[in-house]
Amino acid sequence: MTIFRNVVFVAALTGLLAGIVMAAMQTYATVPLIKKAETFENAGGGHDHAATDPATGTEAAAPHSHDAGTPAHEHDGEAWAPADGFERLAYTVLANIVTAIGFALVLVAVSEILGGIASWRQGIFWGFAGFAVFTLAPGLGLPPELPAMPAADLGGRQIWWTATVIATAVGLGLIAFRSGVVWSLVGVALIVAPHIVGAPQPVSHDSPIPADLHHQYVVAATVTNLIFWVVLGGVAGAIRSRVARSAGSLRDSFA
Amino acid sequence: MNTAISSLGASTSAASRVVQLSFAALLGVFIVGFAGFSQMDVVHNAAHDYRHSMAFPCH
């Protein structure tokens, strides 16, 4: 299991680093917006004044930061959730690291099948591909969402998300690794197809979340994901080229 | 057969290579799927901010 072990080693180191970077970015870029949106979500319960007036709601509610202790939202009868503050942050960091290792496993294993990432610079291009596959393509049909926003049936969205990820990955792979115009055309068609089918959309897009808050959030989530993928790919390329070099020179001991 | 000169684990056969790499990729897919898509409330709540930030369709 030499290769498996080496891939896991490279992916674990890469994911640890990229996950920490991502968690730090989220703490400043996306999580504050999520918490702001939650004040609108909780306002749906009926004790907030800003969102109740549909005529002025979007205008009036956006700039305020409701610091009046609104985040205390312990829903009775629901499953365990991390307490706000350190615990919530800790679980977000943990989720970031664990899934970054997962993404890194996929990236390193797939790139290894296709010849391996030769350098950190090549890794950055692999990172761009990961961004296109996991963020850009699904995000066109299903933009990053804030709490309290309306959405279509969950199962349908998960199927569309998964199908879009697979189609985009295969499409990019055909363009990059198959010679011949026909394969490239098939690749482009695969990338475009999910958007012709279209993602499941909610019946109505009416939401208590102000449009500018959502827009800010889409930009924040997309850009943090871009940096995450660039870091993931670059670090994977850097570590992988070192491991491959030592594996090459110490071939017998790795065998 | 032997294109593995500059790769991770040079002296393994091509078939074994693909099996191991596929296994590693599957493991990654499983991890991401569990953290991003699991319907268990506890997983959902723990990874809530993460899922929103990654734009996973989750609730």
TrEMBL record, chain A:
Which spans are transmembrane here?
89-111, 123-142, 158-176, 181-197, 217-239
Superkingdom of this protein's organism? Bacteria
- Annotated region (Disordered) at 44-77
Stretches with biased composition (Basic and acidic residues): 64-77
* Extent of the signal sequence: 1-23
Pfam families, per the entry: CbtA
Tell me which UniProt keywords the record has, alphabetically. Answer: Membrane, Signal, Transmembrane, Transmembrane helix
Q: Is Membrane one of the keywords? A: yes
| InterPro entries cross-referenced by the UniProt entry | CbtA_put
Kindly provide the name given to this protein in its UniProt entry: CbtA family protein
Give the lineage: Bacteria, Pseudomonadati, Pseudomonadota, Alphaproteobacteria, Hyphomicrobiales
TrEMBL record, chain B:
Q: Which domain of life is it from?
A: Bacteria
Residues that span the membrane, as ranges: 18-37
Question: Which key words are in the record?
Answer: Membrane, Transmembrane, Transmembrane helix
**Has UniProt tagged this entry with the keyword Transmembrane?**
yes
Query: InterPro entries, from UniProt?
Result: CbtB_put
In the UniProt record, does the keyword Transmembrane helix occur?
Answer: yes
* UniProt-listed NCBIfam families: CbtB (TIGR02459)
Quote the protein name from its UniProt record: CbtB-domain containing protein
Task: Please report the organism this UniProt entry assigns to the protein.
Answer: Allomesorhizobium camelthorni
Classification of source organism:
Bacteria, Pseudomonadati, Pseudomonadota, Alphaproteobacteria, Hyphomicrobiales
